[in-house]
């Protein structure tokens, strides 16, 4: 290879960075020419640099690393990455805020997203989690309204506490998540000191068709730590990219963050008797009832080489799964299985799985998915483009890999139970306030934390103009704990007077 020189995107040498081709007139002025491909291409590409940002979870940090299995979990799942202690699987991680746009401050109070791609030897597995174990809704149809109420008002283009609280008063099942959000957990000290949770119930499955229900927990080895409101506001002003910088610099210095990964495991028969609906994402499973079992550790040890290629073009979806893991009947999870690939096709294009950051490291052979915009492999050449062709005989996974155990019918009695449980509950019951009340007591064990949580809600709530709506918010928190509702009223009124 000779010496490197600049070219245009199709190889034509790039003449210079200082002169567009012009016809000079006598008075020294110049006329730009259409023949100046260099100028046209340079401007045209610049105008097209942006792709749509994610409609939620736009601002994020990302890194690569390893998941290491700490146990042989073949008693509960056939997933190969979990079937040998010490087995390592490469990982891509993207940690985000939810509502604010890509230029926003990292430490803005918000739920934080945790999207992880495990490049396993049986294909990619995406874990698309949050830093809270519950969620605001249990019916997926509410998701767009939830997010719009947290984002900008259509007229003022400002975040709007009136919309925010109006939504939550009308959808009180989110009270458990609201308490998490307005507690110190809404402002983690760093991404390295943050936990993450599947929230949803998933299934760990075995080749014989049997399965366990699981919830996945990812806990930082540093211990979860948070900022106060005052600290988070100060950091947001001084360094809006604080989390990104902290994670990047820690990894550059070799100070690799580590998390321990656990599952809570529940038998289907136990699910039928459990006090809580396991498909309702506003509820947790008590650790006393279902203790944590460690399955692995996660170490992030490599920064992206290029943020856009590695992180912005990454596409995560709960539907990206491997044998041994399956979705439960949680309706929010079921909706998500559709929403993410749909979003990726819009945001990145139909062949987004071919982008290097999304491509599986395990062998991929799907010649029945052909063509489409921006295809850039050899498109399976002349291979048959339909499944089961005798022209190029190809086996199915069960024939090659599994022990061939006969699968049990999935239409068991348990499936009938699921059918009955997942008739959806818009109805709010007293039970919906039991776990939030317990969380409020847990917050109370940390000196000053209840007062800080009330203060965090009050400074947000004071932006609500309607006295009636404010009263409805106090009433909502009173249902968790009478004193909490009353203290919130006092704190909000004091904040209104002093503002
Ligand atoms: C009905 C409920 C939900 C819907 C329809 C939904 C939809 C979406 C969409 C469309 C995106 C943007 C994807 C992209 O452009 O690549 C997204 C991102 C994300 N969502 Fe959800 N979501 C839902 C609930 C949840 C829940 C319950 C969690 C956590 C347990 C969650 C975690 C995330 C994360 C972490 C991301 C960022 C992914 C990334 O880093 O690329 N979402 N969601």
From TrEMBL:
InterPro entries reported for this sequence: Catalase, Catalase_AS, Catalase_clade1/3, Catalase_core, Catalase_immune_responsive, Catalase_sf
Entry annotation: catalytic residues: 57, 130
Gene Ontology CC terms, in alphabetical order: mitochondrion; peroxisome
GO biological process, one term: response to hydrogen peroxide
Molecular function GO terms recorded: catalase activity; heme binding; metal ion binding
Cofactor(s) named in the record: heme
Family annotation (Gene3D superfamilies): Catalase core domain (2.40.180.10)
Role description: Catalyzes the degradation of hydrogen peroxide (H(2)O(2)) generated by peroxisomal oxidases to water and oxygen, thereby protecting cells from the toxic effects of hydrogen peroxide.
Family that this chain belongs to: Belongs to the catalase family.
Protein name: Catalase-domain-containing protein
